[in-house]
Structure formats: structure tokens, C-alpha cells
Amino acid sequence: MTHRILDGYRVLDCSIAMAGPFAAQRLGDLGADVVKVEPVTGEWQRHAAAGGARGNAVNVSFLSLNRNKRSLAVDLKSAQGKEVLLQLVGTADVFLQNYRPGVAERLGVDHKTLSAINPRLVYVSMSGYGEDGPHRNLPGQDLLLQAKSGAMLSTGRHGEPPQPAGQYLVDAVTASTAFEAVLAALLHRERTGEGQLVKVNMLDAITTLQMQELSVFTAGGVPQRRGSEPHAHVYIRAPYGTFKTADGFLALAMPDLPTLGRVIGEDTFLTMDSEVHGWTHRDEIFRSTARRLLLRTTAEWLDELTAAGIWCGPVYDYEQLVNDPQIRHNGTFVEYDHPTEGRVRTPGFPYSFEKTPATIERGAPLMGEHSSEVLEEAGFTPDEIAGLLANGVVAETRLPDPVP
After folding, report:
1. What is the DSSP letter of 51?
2. Where in the chain is the domain with CATH 3.30.1540.10?
3. What angle do CA 202, 206, 208 make, to 5 degrees?
4. How confident is residue 2, by pLDDT bands cut at 50, 70 and 90?
């Protein structure tokens, strides 16, 4: 059997939907023994078939996100079920969950409880917007996070509804972020023997993914401007997308059709079955929704739709994203001094380590700024370094002298 880099590590995957399971799957792909801990009725994704691809016994959504795992179906709301999990925690290296804020504590599987059982445990807590702050209880749904990230307004025609990505972008990016955070925390444990709490949220993950674009805006001062021509999911039932309102745009994700019909005054929706007509009447539903949403402002619709329990959200540009209270609360953006560029404000880090926080020790280097330094550390003598520089084998750029 081929040796894999994470052979011997055990992961307890208590996550649902896409981001958490995808992260755990990647750990399994590298050899970790991933135990998917799911309810006795099955994880939510087993019952939600993206694109209507239901499969035979396992739908494609679940199939695609849960390979290299073993399944343990257990009722964590029962005392015995909880004891099963707590005993497993003593054998685990990683515990991964994306419960709603407060649920882990209510279940008795929060970091404080589990780390007391296993101090070497890497505990990964994933959330939509952060585990505290003004937006902690908003739905962490991919489309709504795309809309809030500012990215939609970097594509499409000026004045037309922004276009979402053609994939579950925020879920995928958050999965990758959690995956790399687990690896880093395991490396820290290898060096020190201690586990730690790792937090990952979708808002910070999608914001920091836009490192170049947002830095052009925040550090370069170049605003987003869309032209007259477009510059740039068929697997989600209607209505799902961004819509123009009387004064802006609105993101709307998979509402119950009769409920939506009552809110926006569209009688044709009242007798529809969301899981049937949402697929078979996609274009008609989209057009009817778009026509109705034009009648009122974004703020008015957000109030009414949210009150009805419908997933919706504003479509941010970069300025609104940068000034969002949750972004400020999370400390998503960082500032530092660069020797040639001055004070720089840029997206920071998509994860939070309890004991080994990420920091910025230096900004982007000049070309060859550290050539001599690196070569010296590698064992080259000053004469050898000088010869390499003179022959053009390596190059070096010196920092400008500081201004007196």
C-alpha cells in the first residue's frame, strides 16, 4: 500500500454541507483516517441533491464531498451518543465542525470540553461570518457571501445585475482555507506537542482570496468600474441569483416559492412546489421575481424577505465590504509599513490560530532584496556571493537609504 503523508492521523468530521466536508475530504485524500460523524438520519447533504442528481443510494452532492471517509452515524443529542464521541475524541488528532454559533457548547463538544479530554487535539471551528460580531447569526450560504464579498461587481455590464461565480466559490475557498489551517496546526503540534483552537469563517476566506483585487482598491486607490460589455448556477433551483431593485441590487437564494410569492405579491408562485417547479420553470420564475423586485428598494425588500425567513442579502462593492461592521470586527484587513510603498492596507488572514497567530514580518520584497542573505545562510562565502553577483548568476536590489 502506498504511504500517504497523513497516514496515522485521525480526523473527526462533524461538519455538514460543502465547506467542512470538502476540507475533511482533502485530509482523507492525503491519508488521514477521516471518520464522518453524522446523525442517524444522515448528514444534510445526503438529502440535498445539487442539480437534481440523486444517484442510486448516494446523491452526487454527498458523493463528491465525502470520499476517503468512514461513516459513524450517531445521535449526539443523546447521552450515550455524546459519550461515544467523547471517547473517540481521545483517539483523534483533528476535530472539525461547522455548527451554528453556540451549538457546540449546547452539545458539549466545544473546544474547552474536548481539549480537556485531549490536549493535543486540533479543534477546527468553521462559521459563516465569524463566531461573534454583528453578523454571526446570518446564513452562511455561498451566494450571499459572494454578494457581500464585492467580487460580483468586478464582472458583467454596468447597470446590469452582478453575476455570481459559476461554482460554489465561497464554500470551496473556505474548504481550502480550513485544510491549510489544519496542516499548519498539525505542524505546530509536531514541534510543540500541543493542540489548539483554529477558527475559519467564510467571509474572511472569500475576502482574503481577493488579495490582488482588493489591494488594487485599498492600496492602489483604483475603484471598480464596469464597462458596457460583460467581462467574465445551473445546479440550484430558481430563483437563485442577483436581482435589480428600485435603487440597487439584491441577492436571493433558494426561497420557498409560496412564501416568496406572498412577500413579493406574485400569485403564480402560491401553488408551486419549490423542489419541482423550481427546476422545471426556472426562466419563468426568474423573470417574475425580477419584475416584482423592481417595484421596491433593496432595503425594503431585505426587511420583508428576512422577516419571512427568506435567504437574501445586499450586493456589496469593495467600499461597502471594507467598511462592513463584521469585517471591521473580524480584523479582516491589516495595515503595515512597507519600505518603499509606505503605509499599506490589505486583506489579512483567513484563519485564526489560538496559539500561533499569523503576522506580517515584512512586505513584498524587492527583486533580489535578500539574495546575499539567503545565499549566506545556505553556506556561500562572501567571495562566492560577490562572484555570482558579478557574473549575473544572481541579482540583488538594495533598499533605498532611509530618509533622514
Report:
1. G
2. 233-320
3. 115
4. low
Cell of 286: 426568474
Architecture of domain 233-320: 2-Layer Sandwich (3.30)
The SS3 assignment for 210 reads coil
Instruction: Give helix 202-209 / helix 211-218 axis angle, nearest 10°.
Output: 80
User: Which triple of cell numbers denotes residue 1?
Assistant: 500500500
pLDDT at 1 over 90: no
Q: Is 293 helix (H, G, I), strand (E, B) or coil?
A: helix
What pTM value is reported for the model? 0.81
CA distances from 19 to 9, 31, 307 (A): 20, 19, 27
Pairwise CA distance, residues 404 & 402, whole Å:
6
The C-alpha cell of 375 is what?
545565499
Task: Name residue 243's beta-bridge partners.
Answer: 250
Nearest-angstrom CA–CA distance, 120 and 139: 32
pLDDT tens, position by position, 336-358? 888 888 898 999 998 888 888 88
Q: Which three cell numbers stand for residue 209?
A: 482570496
9-31 pLDDT tens trace = 999 999 999 999 999 989 998 88
Under CATH, which architecture does the 10-209 domain have?
Answer: 3-Layer(aba) Sandwich (3.40)
- Contact between 240 and 289 (Cβ < 8 Å): no
Q: Which three-class secondary structure state does DSSP give residue 310?
A: coil
Give per-residue pLDDT as tens, 116-137: 999 999 999 999 999 999 999 9
Q: What is the DSSP string of 85-148?
A: HHHHHTT-SEEEE-PPTTHHHHHT-SHHHHHHH-TT-EEEEEESS-SSSTTTTS---HHHHHHH
Provide the b/e sequence for 21-46 (b: ≥16 CB within 10 Å). Answer: bbbbbbbbeebbbbbbbbeeeebebb
* pLDDT, tens digit (0-9, with 9 covering 90-100), for 242-275: 999 999 999 999 999 999 999 999 999 999 999 9
Q: What is the mean pLDDT of the chain?
A: 91
Please answer whether residues 95 and 197 qualify as being in contact, where contact means their C-beta atoms are separated by less than 8 angstroms.
no
> 33-38 and 10-14: which strand pairing?
parallel
For residue 82 the three cell numbers come to: 455524546
